[in-house]
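Shift notes (night). Ran ATPase associated with various cellular activities, AAA_3 while the centrifuge was going.
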Amino acid sequence: MSALTEIQQLKQWLSSQIVGQPELVDRLLIALIADGHILVEGAPGLAKTKAIKTLSEGMEGDFHRVQFTPDLLPSDVTGTDIYRPENGTFEFQRGPIFHNLVLADEINRAPAKVQSALLEAMAERQISVGKSTYALPDLFLVMATQNPIEQEGTYPLPEAQLDRFLMHVRVGFPDVAAEREILRLSRNEASATSIPDAPVAEVSQATIFEARQAALTVHMAEPVEEYIVQLVNATRNPDAYGPDLAKWIEFGVSPRATISLDRCSRAHAWLAGRDYVSPDDVRAVLHDIFRHRLLLSFEAEAEGLDADKIIDNLLQRVPVA
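Came back to this:
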């Protein structure tokens, strides 16, 4: 069985378990294939935690959830040296960051030191304690969540730290049909006689690494590559596309956005079973990649514009090469 078939079967099974959030399932798999981390924003009860936990059940790898709170310390995430009096030495006790899939629940509840410790691990794929450095697993994905409703007592992530995330996904409430399906699924899970659907087969880490290499080989024509570059450039030189756009954008996206757009577009095309990237693949993931990297001006906020509306404007004004 090919890596694509296995990943598509995993996606189908995840969609049956995570009802009403197809975009979240899709973006989780894209992040897994593109080897990046994902920030998910949504109201409580929208299956954010269940999504990554269910993903861990369908693949080879361990999962750990960390609830971020104001009293959390960096060592609670990374681990720390423990003194062993019986032999008079220090022994490193690994923290939850050393799992394959890590859920950083309500990341904006923790102070800056804890956020920095996590984001350093995400960027460098290693952590340092004292004079020692410890490598993280080859398969390592962080899904951080934040609640947009309650902002009291939170520590918003600075733009430089947000830039470390491959994608920033916003999830909304399910529609009426999905709500009915959620009710049925919940009843079945609560029933003592029901047996939860098991994934067709556990996806191995070797298959995931194979999928990553396959996605990187997806063909991207020069016009599509130019389209990516021009979209990025439009955020840095918005006056070339209209004085109103220049008035709304304070700072454009970083080179990480270019790299992320390339990798996620390839992953999106590969998941769809195509061996080439189209402009539609770029547009499909653009909001998730630019949303947390665009810094808007006061004028934009005063006019009630958010990053998504600015990105919609960019799509209308930047032509496909």
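The mean pLDDT is 89. The longest helix spans residues 255-271.
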